[in-house]
Amino acid sequence: GIEGVVVIGGDGSFRGARDLSLRGIPTIGVPGTIDNDIACCDYTIGYDTAMNTVMDMVDRIRDTTESHDRCSVVEVMGRRAGYIALNSGIAIGATSILIPEVDFDIEKDVIERMKRTQKTDKKHFIIIVAEGVSEKIGGVVNLAKIIEEKTGVESRATVLGHVQRGGSPSVRDRVIASKMGYHAVQLLKDGIGNRVVAMRRENIVDYDIFEALLMKNTIDLDMNKMNCDISI
After folding, report:
1. Beta-ladder partners of 167
2. What values do phi and psi take at 132, rounded to 5?
């Protein structure tokens, strides 16, 4: 007696939606993940709220960082995706941003950048590290120790953790969620299932769920280059 199911989540949830579709249940997937890592979508529900939370938390950390001339190494969420790290890092003026999609060298991309920035008389630094990178380097506490040893700058590590997954949704998230939910219900009303709702170039569209799961993610590497140029 199930007339239709709207599944809100990421790739794992969409695979479950696909299996329901294969069993004859009309199913629509709606992208909801703070990581913004669903390949068929430019934007996922929760992403904007998470980034604003990171920005707010790091702005608070910055107060101590500035007053004590420290380096704050902050781990943000994102698993294998660097979207939160890259965009929130640019927003808060991070000296370095380490993301899984870009190869990095701690000496070149963190230590040397800090030393060059010190020549401008700047004495406090913010380093943003995506969750997936943190695992590879032994954690942000380890990176903070390396930074302090090599630069002489007192360094502290902070893992923001699940605070990024909660809180009151931003206006953008509420509006986009409403648009996506409305589109999903309209599809079901028209007898259409086995689709994923997505945002592409600010438009709400939908894809075959099998096609959506085969798409590959790409990150805007020009934004990463921009941050390297403007953060010193």
Report:
1. none
2. -65, -35
| 3 state SS of 178 | helix
pTM of the shown model: 0.90
| Angular region, 2: left φ>0, alpha ψ -120 to 50, beta rest | beta
CB proximity list for 174: less than 8 A, separation 6 or greater: none
Supply the residues annotated as catalytic. Answer: 35
Retrieve residue 33's tokens.
């993940």
- How far apart are the C-alpha atoms of 97 and 90, rounded to whole Å? 8
What is the b/e burial string over 24-56, where b = at least 16 CB atoms within 10 angstroms of the residue's CB? eebbbbbbbbbbbbbebbebbbbbbbbbbbbee
C-alpha distances (whole Å) from 18 to each of 6, 65, 78, 180 are: 11, 48, 24, 18
The CA-atom distances, in angstroms, between 80 and each of 72, 130, 138, 183, 216 are: 22, 8, 16, 29, 13
pLDDT digits (tens, 9 = 90+) for 25-77: 999 999 999 999 888 899 999 999 999 999 999 999 999 999 999 999 999 99
Copy the structure tokens of residue 66: 């500035």
Secondary element (H or E) of residue 157? strand 155-159
pLDDT > 90: percent of the chain: 71
* pLDDT score recorded for residue 224: 84
